[in-house]
Specification:
With 409 residues, the protein is mostly helical. The protein has helices spanning 22-27, 30-36, 113-119, 128-135, 139-151, 159-171, 175-187, 195-208, 211-223, 231-242, 247-259, 267-279, 283-293, 298-309, 318-321, 337-340, 349-361, 375-387, 398-405, and strands at residues 41-43, 53-54, 79-81. It is globular and about 75 Å long.
Amino acid sequence: VLPEAAQPPPDEAVPVDTEPAEAATAAGNPDAEAAESRVIAEAAPAQPTEPVRQSDPLVAAGSIPATSATAQDVPEAEAAFAPPAGVTSSFGDNPVADPATRAPAAGTSNLEPSSLLANLPPEGVGPMALRSAAASGNPAAEFFVGVRYTEGEGVPADLEKAAVWYQKAANKGLPPAQYRLASLYEKGRGVEKDMAKARAWYSQAAQAGNAKAMHNLAVLYAEGGGEDPDYAKAAMWFESAANYGVKDSLFNLGILYAGGIGVDKDLVASYKWFAIAADKGDPEAAKRRDDVANMMDQQTLANARLAVEGFKLKDADPAANKVTLEPSWAEQSSVPAANVSAPAPAGNVDMIREAQDKLNYLGFDTGTPDGQMGPRTRSAIRAFQRSIGLPETGEVDAKLIDELKSQAI
C-alpha cells in the first residue's frame, strides 16, 4: 500500500493500517481517516514517467502476479500507496506553512486573568483544570481540547474549532498536534485544503520522530502532493516509518523493492518488508511475500529469511508519538482513585467497542469490534498494556481508554 495509519492520523493521537471506529470516522477523526483508506493510487513502471494516477481511496491493493518458481525476475510491480491521514472551512489562528515558523515553546502564558477567561474553552470540553491549562497555553491541554472537538466528546464535533486548538499546540512544537493539523490540511477538513501546509506540518512531526507522520509524508512524496512524485524521498520516509512498525510503510517498501521504484530492485529486501508486514497481521503482505519467494532460488530465499529474523523494530519516542493526559484533566479526576480505573461492566458495549476500535487501529488485533469481551480482545489489551509498560490486566477501563486515545500510532 504505497499511496496510518493517517487517521492519524492520530496520534494519540496516527494514519493508516487498520479499520477505524465508525464513530471516529463520522466525526472526522484525522487518525481514523488515515486508517480507513489504505490504497489511493497505483504507479505501474519500475521507472515511473508519469504521476501516480488517482484511484478510489478504499480500493484494495492489487497483488503481484503469481509466477512459477523458475521465474528469473519480478514482473513490473504495481505500486499501491497507503494514503496519508486527513481530517472544512478555514480558520483564522495564524496557520503556519513554513516549518521554521514556530511560536515559542510554552507551558503557560503570561495572559491576564481577563484574557484567560476569554480563551477558556466551554465547560463541556472537560474539567476546569484542562480548560484553564489550555487557556494558559499548555500545548498538551490545547491538543486534548482539539481531540474533544474532533471526536465530539462533551461538545459538538467541530473540525474548524479542533484545527484552531491543534494549531496552537503545533505552533509550540507538539509533534502529535503537528501530525493532526497536517492531516486536516491534507484533506481540507476544518481548514482550506493546502498541500504545502500539510507537507510542512508532516515534515515537522516526522523529523521530530512521529512515525505516522513519516508514513504520511512518504505518501505525499509518492503521490506528488501538488508536485512531481519523488519516489526516492518516499522510500526514505517509508523506511523510517517501517522501522517503527507502521504496517502500511512495511507493505509499501515491499512494493518499491519488488518494482525498483525509487530504489534498486531487490528481491531480498522486498521479501523482508512483506514478511515483516505479514507478521504484523497483514494478509495481503503475506500473499505478496509468497509470490516473491516463488521468484527466488533456495539460497536467495534463505538469505531473505535471515534478513527477516535479524530485523528489530525501533522504539518510538513517546514524546513525539503520544500526549499524556494529566490525571486532573480527566473527567474522573473528582472520583476516588480506586474507582477511576474500574473495569467496564460486561454490558458496557460502547466502551468495549471503542477500545476494540482503537486497539485495531494501533495494530493490536481484536477482530471485528462487537462490544464483547472475549479472549482475543483480552489478549490484544494485554499486548497493548505490555507495549507501554502498564500492568497487564486485560480489562477495559477508563485508564485504558485514555491511553488508547493518547497514542499517535
